[in-house]
Amino acid sequence: MNKIGIFYSFKSTKTAKAAEKIKEAFGPDFNIVPVNAEELTEELFLSFTNLILGVPTWFDGELPNYWDEFVPALEDLNLNGKTIAIFGLGNQVEYPENFGDAVGIMAELVQERGARLIALTSAEGYHYESSKALVDGEFCGLILDQESQPRLSKERIENWVNDLKAQFN
Amino acid sequence: MTAVPKVFSVKTTPKEILEKWYRLMTLGRAIDEKAPNYLKQAIGWSYHAPYAGHDGIQLAIGQTFEKEIDHIFLYYRDLLTALSCGMTAEEIILNGISKATDPTSGGRHMSNHFAKPAWHIHNVSSLTGNHTLHAVGVARAIKYYGEKAVSISVQGESSLSEGYVYEAINGASKEKLPVIFCIQDNGFGISVPKKDQTANRKVANNFTGFKNLLIIHCNGKDVFDSMNAMHEAKRHALETGMPVMVQANCIRIHSHSNSDRHELYRSEEERNYVQDYDPLFKFKRMLIRYERFTLEELEKIENEAKIELKEAHKLALKAPDPDPNTYLDFVLPEPYKPLKYVDGTHQETGEKKKLITGLNETLKAEFRNNPDTFMWGQDMANKDKGGIFNVSKGLQQEFGPKRVFNAPIAEDFIVGTANGMSRYSEKIRIVIEGAEFADYFWPAMEQYVDSSHDYWRSNGQFTPNVTIRLASGGYIGGGLYHSQNIEGSLTSIPGVRIVYPSFADDAAGLLRTAIRSRGLTMFMEPKALYNDPKAATVIPDDFEVPFGKARIRRDGEDLVMITYGNTTHMCLEAAERLSKEGISVEVIDLRSLIPLDKNTILNSVKRIGKVIVVHEDKVHAGFGAEITSIIMEDAFEYLDGPVKRIGSTFTPVGFHRSFERMILPNTEKIYNTAKEVVAY
After folding, report:
1. Cα–Cα separations (whole angstroms), residue B453 to B46, B126, B309, B460
2. Cα(B21)–Cα(B18) distance, rounded to whole angstroms?
3. Residue among B10, B185, B282 minimizing CB distance to A65
4. Does residue B482 carry a catalytic annotation?
5. Is B290's Cβ below 8 Å from some Cβ in A?
6. Residue B458 shares a structural domain with residue B403
7. pLDDT per residue as tens digits for the range B115-142
8. How many CB pairs lie under 8 A apart between chains A and B?
9. pLDDT band per the 50, 70, 90 thresholds, residue A168
10. Superfamily of domain A4-167
């Protein structure tokens, strides 16, 4: 098993905590390497074949600034051969129009550049109005809502990681 | 979601453009951060609404604006927008500290209201979103004259809660006008969060049902996303002539203004969250990350901005303060001065015409005289109908639907777009039926009040050249909403001429003068007299009546009646009856309330010594109270008895004729009061 890079902002609180839970769920048999998304470079990003991206939704459906600032670089990358999974925090009660949008934005970006997106999740159990993360009836990643459904996060992470274990090369 | 082409990006935008943007953003932020110091040092800028967090969209709006071609209406948080439009740091500070050379208003308007009318950066009200109607109005002129330009209305998202903003967007959609509505959404209206404003966080999406309106969402914190959104908005508006709404998601890093403390209603976590996404720092990081600039290059620009600000500060401090003795300047512009009928009287003989005919023929004559004259209102023009009372009958047929047309049932829209359209060119003259009846004018009051102080507030740089016609008064059995007089409320507002003729010739002459004048005129029409033979007169074809010139309709020696509108005829009837009892009554028809012909009033009062003031509006706080006070102050020693007022009761006007007789003044009431006063 290749190492798996888990990219998230080390300055974040909830996203960082979710990333740690994901790492824990993988257990000791997997080489999960945390990468600070605030200090991302093209070289660092390309040094991984398997990537987990922590992409919370900011404001009314935006990427966090650290990911947004990486987008011009990302747009020029060839991601053929990369396997990518995305998770992100959203708030379906206060931002129902943009629930988990950033996950959808990032999914589209990496797929357009050749990456294989894995670990889609069921949209059941969420209550929102619209989401860019919803593609063909499924979320294109794991969306966690620590504001209104914090008790569901543990199970959602475990299920998602089980799926990841099966799908990562 | 509209796909916006990526014309601008950090990798491809030419370096000199990026440098210009960074320079503007750095300078803007430096001024924004310095502004509170002026207040702390008691120099000025007592109102400052910091823009930090809106940097991307404000830069983009200004860069999209083409001075002297496009028209733009900024709101009170638009410091960087003003700078990006081309205003200098010195001009910004001159406004902030209210100097005589402040290009917005010469120190008359609030600080943080940036304008430069010569460039079409219009002077706007503090009333949030009020200028949206003006932007639509000026776009109507852009379309009519076929100019390749856009009108840009900039405002916060909370302004979309205002009804008149809805009216404006509806109008732009219906008329297919090149307006860009730029909504800077920072999530708060002062302390009121967006959830308390509307159910939809994406407030622009409340307008998705409007036809012809393109809606673009962008990240107002991001320079490139904002630039691309504004570029696409302008391209679309120019190429299609259709309106666009751009909703830019921003953050408000600081409090609403220097009188607000956001820590009272925003958590520390939230405040830190927005601080982390400082758009200026994000732009700087990207310029360095993508190797467009070195840190040293950017620091050099920052230092140059500091020097520029320092120089601007010094120059602004040296600028003269406004001269307070000019406070009476620019209340009203000089009106058109009749040359032939200097005092507004004539000796013409011939066939008498009704008041309605006088108005209709004068409108037609003025539309022929000035091809840049326009008219709209409710029920204004539909086939053979021309106005609710047919005052404008035949105008659309002769002058076409682009100059004479119906307006939506939206009084504020009617007045607000008139204000806006007249901003396009000094040559334009606009006549509007402000409402079906004067009673329905109240929804337009915010535009009326705002328009009333445009001339003063802009230090004489702009005045709306608009005549507002209103069918007024009772005696038609119309009850509430079809019988009220509203001039008593309006005369307390400076900046508007108010006229109220009683006879056909005066109606025609005053209307001609109003249309030819600069400034705002409220033209009140006594609708009960439209077709009444007693108001019919001979009307010279070119008749003009100057403002502020009363007309003595009957000479007398024992009592003077001061009146206007419907009651002029009752006074004349009472005077005739009194004459048969040997009482000689003079009747003054004021014609103009603002300006008021004090000389004629005082001359008669001093000569006769007994006076009653008669009008149809309520006695309570009516305009008669003002006339009476003037007489008491300036001619008290000439009085031989109390000044009595006659008008309607302090009630609405009832529908049943018996109510109307009780409530409104009539000849009998005037006669009885005249007898009382004459007895002193």
Report:
1. 21, 12, 32, 10
2. 5
3. B282
4. yes
5. yes
6. yes
7. 999 999 999 999 999 999 999 999 999 9
8. 38
9. confident
10. Flavodoxin domain (3.40.50.360)
